[in-house]
Amino acid sequence: MKQDIRKIKFEDIGFSDFFVNHYKQATGKALTPARIVAEHKELYILRNETTELSAKITGKMMFTSSSRENYPAVGDWVLITVLDEKQAIIHKILPRKTVLTRKSVSNSDKQLIASNIDVALIIQSPDRDYNLNRFERYIILAESENIKPIIVLNKTDLLSKNELDIKITEIEKRFENIEVYATSIITGKGITDLKNSIQKGSTYCFLGSSGVGKSSIINIILGNALIQTAEISSYSDRGKHITTHRELFILDNGGILIDNPGMREIGVLDSEPGIRSVFSEIFELSKECKFADCRHINEPGCAVQNAISSGHLDASKFENCIKIVKENAYNTMNKLEKREKDRKFGQFIKTAKKQIKKYKL
Hints:
Elements: H1 17-25, E1 32-40, E2 43-47, E3 52-57, H2 59-64, E4 77-82, E5 87-93, E6 99-103, E7 110-115, E8 119-124, H3 132-143, E9 148-153, H4 161-174, E10 180-182, H5 191-196, E11 203-207, H6 214-222, E12 229-230, E13 240-241, E14 247-250, E15 256-259, H7 272-278, H8 280-286, H9 303-310, H10 315-332, H11 335-359
Parallel strand pairs: 3-5, 8-9, 8-11, 9-10, 11-15
Antiparallel strand pairs: 1-2, 1-4, 2-3, 4-5, 6-7, 12-13, 14-15
């Protein structure tokens, strides 16, 4: 369902000084700015101060684009020429303030999720793939781009008060400096608090798996059933969303919400800043280890293992840190480096098999 079109000010939908300055420096003053609110294959839906327009990129943009990141994305500010009251042409993407990306599921490239995000609302629900390690992956993606992460535990009506208290306690213990909201679209719990936290001119991106209730929360905040959700009979699966594309919505108070399709996999790539931020405690502890090349396994004088033994560091957090650091390093390698690494590993397996046969009784 299409949003109601009303006149707006660019600054109310995120056209901050960052974009104003780049717009002033842009060539072709006849071009006007607009923000991409939806993407459908090669067709984009734009919003300017007066209306919505459908648009395509120029042939030159298409010809010179070397990767998906060179194409417009939801949240982008672009420079356009208006053809008529319904259509426009996109000539240029203004520099992005932030870019939310993950490793592509199909290859080692980056997949652009959305751009110019201020806050990432990370949604999980107890009936889906609730997992603290999964929260960490989303937070890494956000903090790698200086995007503020906020945790939302939705569908809290499925939990008893005691169960909810336990989950909130473990979340707050694991993520001490991150805001946490407990919400339910059934009881309305926490929704008003979440809505009141949304600030005018800021862009909020909803992240999470399918069925955690992202679209349903957005519908309630908007006050309209703009996003279609699939109400199914199973109580635990109520409100399973069927979002198939990214879309940007503008609140009456000027806040901006971006809904996303559910993500099963959250691969990290070029995410060292976020990793160092999320696991800062572990990196600081490693400086106190007796040996500079400590692997934090069973070496004497290991500050990390001592912290785990004493209960000051969560063992599962450390294990997730090691896993993500290795994954990020592998995904960040170029194709030649990966090919060489895979070749050496193959040789190791072949040699090991020969040794096993040689000494097999």
